[in-house]
Structure formats: structure tokens, C-alpha cells
Amino acid sequence: MVRSLLPLGVALFGAASVLAQNPPTCSLDKKCPEEAPCCSQYNQCGVGAFCLGGCDPRMSFSLDSCVPAPVCEDKVYKMNTLDNYKDISEYLGDPDTADWVGQGEPLLYDGNVLLTMPPKSVGTVLATTRYMWYGNVKAKLKTSRGAGVVTAFILFSDVKDEIDYEFVGVDLETAQTNYYFQGIPNCADSVAIQDDNSGNITDLSNTYDNFHEYEIQWTPDEIKWLVDGKVGRTKKRSETWNETSNQWAFPQTPSRVQISIWPGGAETNAEGTINWAGGKIDWNSDEIKNFGYYFATFSEVTVECYKTNSPPGTNKGVSYYYNNIAGTNDTVVDSNKPTVLKSLLGTGTDMDKGGDNSTDAAETSGVHNVPGGSSSPANVPGSGSNSGGSDSGSSGSSSSGSTQSCDTKSFSQNCGSSGTSGNSNDGVRGADRTLGASAFAVIIGIAGLLFL
Ligand SMILES: *[C@@H]1O[C@H](CO)[C@@H](O)[C@H](O)[C@H]1NC(C)=O
Ligand SMILES: *[C@@H]1O[C@H](CO)[C@@H](O)[C@H](O)[C@H]1NC(C)=O
Ligand SMILES: *[C@@H]1O[C@H](CO)[C@@H](O)[C@H](O)[C@H]1NC(C)=O
Ligand SMILES: *[C@@H]1O[C@H](CO)[C@@H](O)[C@H](O)[C@H]1NC(C)=O
């Protein structure tokens, strides 16, 4: 059995009935239309944030629809502040304005960042604003726990190369590892052959109670996964030749670091995903009663860029872009192209759009600019809507309406609070929140893609 868990699907928490129109979906065979040219990480078309981190040039209207991606920078991301975090609805592509962009509810607690998943939500995802083209990345984290609750620390490229750590909340002694080339699972020729994209690192001391340091060392020749400095798994490029496609099925393109908590056990997910995640999520668990949400704890993320003078893997310029739809390492250009949009109406081919007063907002009515929905920028009517990542067969539409007392139009944080009221600890942790009115009704992309 081969299973791939890609953060592909998206769901808008409860708002689908209010905001009717879903963004068009995109795939290799179905590129985005000209008016919504950018294919997001979750395979939906739009402008603005759809054209920034995660934009897949192969599925977008044209190769240059996506905005070039900021190059790697060596950095220690201390997770003791949220000052360096922006909701994706507030980020225009300048990595000097934010280290992380995301959706959901990250909170500061006790000197760490908690990624939280309140009842019936789809959790929280953060991605670095800069990309790594090979290199080392490590995260000190404590996982979440509970059936159906998944914590992830991954590298994910715009063409869907992926290197993962994933933790399911019913097994607190195992780090599951995966890698994918362009999101293609290694199916081998027989179902009898075990999926070798995946591998487990076992016998860890309780991953919920203890910080461990999870590391990915990625070079053009191999991937190493290390826990607390000890190599737990190695995958060599030389083992990944695909004779059908005549290429290495090995991750090779600039990737963002993504950290997340998400509901693998959401009722609406595919059965295989729910089983993998350890069963359906219990929204009345002790964890929810005690804290008001499930959570994973991050204390530090460190990125060391790959050091080389010639491609692949350079970090000399300002940004990376792709010059060919193949999406392989030799099609990545380390360039000096700018990365910043003037507004969330912009795209890679019109980066200044909306920057002056000439743009009639009505013109973009119905065009989405924040994947997954989010608090919509005031100037874009109709944004922020969408629902389930219906493409990809995934069940990203994990959270189904549960906004009972909420005005689904407002996407306000209060909406979330009312949902979790009565939790004594919620207030304590909530007090540290620095995110003002970021969207509760937000979503993350998530998905269990199941291949049997
Ligand atoms: C090889 O590549 C083809 C085309 O992308 C893909 O369909 C197939 O599953 C791959 N084979 C293996 C063993 O990964
Ligand atoms: C990894 O461990 C999980 C249980 O935590 C198991 O379901 C899965 O099959 C294992 N994967 C591999 C590749 O051994
Ligand atoms: C980079 O791409 C070239 C051309 O497709 C290929 O020969 C080379 O093996 C690739 N290197 C890696 C690390 O994938
Ligand atoms: C845009 O409009 C605002 C207020 O209506 C005005 O202050 C500003 O000068 C205008 N900017 C441009 C570039 O026209």
C-alpha cells in the first residue's frame, strides 16, 4: 500500500454556504485560466497570495504567472515570538517583512510557538517565506497527541517535491519519514512491493512530552533524516532512477519549510487517511477540555543553506524561478528578479497591479487572492471563499461547518473563541496571542491522498 500525504486539499471552515463560488482547480492537464492565473499549493487558481509561496508554475496559466521565490538565507528561527509571522492575507512577498507566513492559529506560550487546532478546525500551517535549494534544516519540537491528530515538519517545493517528518498522535515513539518527487508516489511495479518513499524512525522517547531535534540533510545526492543528531534514515538519489520517465525521482527543487498540525482523522477524510492517522478525532478529548485545542510545540527551526558555486543548489541571487515546465533541478534559475507584489491583486506578470488607485476592485470580484480563504483584504470583494480541495481526490475539506454561533462572513477570531469557551486554560494561552483578528475561519491545506 502506498500512501502519500500531501498538503493539497483546502477547506474553508463553514463558509462555503455563504460564499458560493469556489476557485477553479488546476492540475498538470488543466492549467489556470488567464484571469486567475496562479495555481496554489492546494491546486486552486487565483491571484495575489496564490502567486506567492506554493504557486506551481506547471499548472499555472503560464510559467511566469507565479512570482519568483526568495532565495535561501542561513537563519536560526527562534520560535519565541510571532512578530516575524504574517497571515498569508497580509504578506506580499518581501521576505524581509516576515520569516513565516501561514494560516490558522499559532500562539505564543511559555517561550514557544504552539500550532493549534481548535475544535472542528483544520489546524494551523506555517511556511518560511524563503526557499531552500538543498541544505540542512532542523526543528526542535514536541508533537501533538491524540487519535487523528497529525504534526508535520516538511520541505515542500512549488512543483511538489517533498521531504517529510510526520507524526501521528497515537504513536508517540515514531517519526514517520517520506519523500516525493513532484508529488508522485513510488508505485513500483507490484503492489506487493512496499512503498519505499516511507520509512519510520522508531523508539523515540515520548514525542509529546519531550523536545527532540528533527533534522533533514538534503544534498543533490542524498537525503538524511536525523533525530537528536543520529541518522535514522538515508535515501540516495542513485536509488531513485525511474526508467519510464528517464529521470531521478528525487526531490531537487527549492522548497519552503512548512510546519503544521492538521486533522488526519477528520470525519470527512478518506478512510485510509483516518486509519493512518490513528482514527477519528475526538473533539471532546481531555486535550480539548484542558487546553481548548490540540497543539504542537515548536521552540526553534534552523536553516543552513547548501553551499555550492554552481547550480543546482546556489543561493546567489534574489529569487528562484522555473524556465521550463519539467520542474527539474536544471530548470530552476537563481535570478535577480523581484519577489514583491504591490497588492494582493498582483500576479507574476503584473506585479504592480493594485498598487495605485487605478484598479477598480470590482474588476476582480470573484477572483480569489488568498488560498484556502482567510480574512479578506478589504479591497477585494469575493475573496476568501472556497472549499474543499476537491481535486486530487483528497479530502481536504476536513472541517465541516461548525460555526454555529459565528457570522461566517466576518471570519472573526471571536468566532473561534466562542467555540472553545469554557476552557480554563484557553484564556491563559490566549492571552499571549499577538495575532489580533486573523482568521479563525481559515484553513489549511491538508490532505490525505490515498493510493491503494
Ligand atoms: C515513473 O514515472 C512515471 C511518470 O511520471 C510514473 O507514472 C511512475 O509511477 C513512476 N514509476 C515509479 C516506479 O515511481
Ligand atoms: C510506520 O509506523 C506506523 C505506525 O506508527 C505504521 O502504520 C506504518 O506502516 C510504518 N511505516 C513503515 C514504512 O514501516
Ligand atoms: C538535475 O537535472 C539533471 C537533468 O535532468 C539530471 O541529469 C541530474 O541528475 C539532476 N540532479 C539531481 C540531483 O536530481
Ligand atoms: C490614492 O488615494 C488616496 C486616498 O484616496 C490618496 O491619498 C493617494 O494620493 C492616491 N494615490 C495615488 C497614487 O493616486
Description:
Residues 372-384, 392-402, 412-425 have a biased composition (Low complexity). GO terms for molecular function: endochitinase activity; glycosyltransferase activity. It is an enzyme of class 3 (hydrolase). It comes from Canariomyces notabilis. Residues 344-429 are annotated as: Disordered. By secondary structure, this protein is mainly β. The chain has a domain at 70-305: Jelly Rolls (Sandwich), CATH 2.60.120. 6% of the residues lie in helices and 28% in strands. The protein has four helices and 25 strands. The chain has helices spanning 271-276, 286-291, 413-419, 424-430; strands at 2-4, 38-39, 45-46, 69-70, 75-78, 85-87, 100-103, 105-109, 112-117, 124-128, 135-142, 149-157, 162-168, 175-180, 198-201, 212-218, 222-227, 230-236, 241-242, 247-248, 255-263, 294-305, 319-322, 332-335, 449-451. The strands form six sheets. Strands 5, 8, 9, 11, 16, 17, 18 and 22 form an eight-stranded antiparallel sheet that branches. An eight-stranded mixed sheet has the order 6-7-10-21-12-13-14-15, with no helix packed on it. The termini are close together. Residues 171, 174, 176, 198-200 line the site of one 2-acetamido-2-deoxy-beta-D-glucopyranose. Residues 220, 237, 247-248, 250, 252, 312, 328-330 line the site of one 2-acetamido-2-deoxy-beta-D-glucopyranose.
